[in-house]
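Budget justification aside, the reviewers requested a transparent look at the raw inputs and outputs of the sequence design task funded under Objective 1. We therefore reproduce one unedited record. The lines immediately below are the structure tokens for a 309-residue chain.
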């Protein structure tokens, strides 16, 4: 019996599937010399809070892993190399009635396929304000919150998540929309979402790393099969960003129980070969791996110094 022909049956290439970020990350760090595999957060069950009131009457906040721009912390602009000096290590908040310059140079987004020129792809406050003006939600909460991207599960679970919950309760938040960027960001927001739900606040994560979020077992997850850094839609594509937020809001309304994933119908491009690139050791030469190891060690020292300061 002959093997099926992809063209005859209309099969997509095998790589046109959600990127296995957990395995890619393990293989990548092993290849640059860090042989102890990272333990990704894993749960089987998830807490779940149904909406306590219709979204048209709800106060909604955003929880982001993006960082406020600080001109003293080096290059944080579009295309900037990974900048450990721009990391933040404590929960912060911002007034949603003001404009904010939040950036993602401090985390491992997809720098090859993401220009990082449009913060609307990682910080959907403009779209949330439009949803409020249109009556789709009751109102935007007075503050949004920044969640530190922390590899330490204990710090996220024992310090950052409870602090975010406390601030949400202070602001009488009804619903939280969480928007991660890098692989560890997705784990961070998953742990925070679980804590918020256990504390009585319904949540939805808008993200691009399906395996990480589902491994941690979250209440609701809107999956966009886009390069990391585009959880809130395509850059410079307002319609895409509006549709992505609307899908997240619909998921908040429609999920009947925990671990509900909705996949956005939007595609990044017809050519899915971009999925082969991110931290894929099969695509990297020994020289490039050595260069990345040296750069990673350098940035780790910078971040360690900032944490101690």
């Amino acid at each position: 019996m002959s093997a099926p022909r992809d063209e005859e049956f209309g099969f997509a290439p095998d790589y046109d599937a959600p990127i296995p970020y957990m395995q890619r990350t393990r293989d990548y760090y092993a290849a640059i010399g860090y042989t102890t595999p990272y333990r990704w957060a894993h749960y089987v069950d998830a807490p779940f809070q149904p909406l306590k009131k219709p979204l048209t009457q709800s106060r909604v906040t955003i929880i982001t892993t993006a960082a406020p721009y600080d001109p003293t912390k080096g290059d944080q602009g579009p295309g900037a190399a990974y900048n450990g000096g721009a990391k933040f290590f404590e929960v912060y908040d911002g007034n949603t009635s003001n404009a904010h310059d939040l950036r993602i140079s401090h985390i491992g987004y997809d720098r090859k396929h993401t220009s990082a020129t449009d913060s609307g792809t990682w910080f959907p406050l403009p779209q949330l304000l439009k949803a409020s003006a249109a009556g789709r939600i009751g109102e935007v909460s007075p503050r949004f919150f920044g969640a530190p991207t922390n590899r330490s599960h204990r710090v996220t679970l024992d310090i950052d998540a409870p602090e975010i919950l406390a601030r949400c309760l202070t602001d009488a938040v009804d619903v939280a929309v969480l928007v991660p960027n890098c692989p560890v960001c997705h784990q961070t927001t998953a742990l925070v979402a679980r804590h918020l739900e256990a504390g009585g606040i319904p949540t939805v994560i808008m993200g691009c790393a399906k395996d990480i979020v589902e491994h941690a077992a979250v209440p609701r997850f809107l999956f966009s099969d886009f390069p990391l850094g585009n959880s809130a839609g395509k850059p410079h594509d307002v319609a895409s960003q509006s549709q992505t937020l609307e899908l997240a809001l619909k998921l908040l309304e429609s999920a009947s129980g925990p671990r509900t994933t909705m996949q956005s119908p939007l595609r990044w491009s017809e050519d899915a070969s971009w999925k082969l690139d991110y931290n894929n050791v099969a695509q990297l030469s020994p020289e490039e791996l050595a260069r990345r190891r040296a750069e990673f060690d350098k940035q780790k020292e910078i971040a360690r110094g900032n944490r101690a300061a």
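The mean pLDDT is 94. The radius of gyration is 19 Å. Computational costs for records of this kind are itemized in the attached budget.
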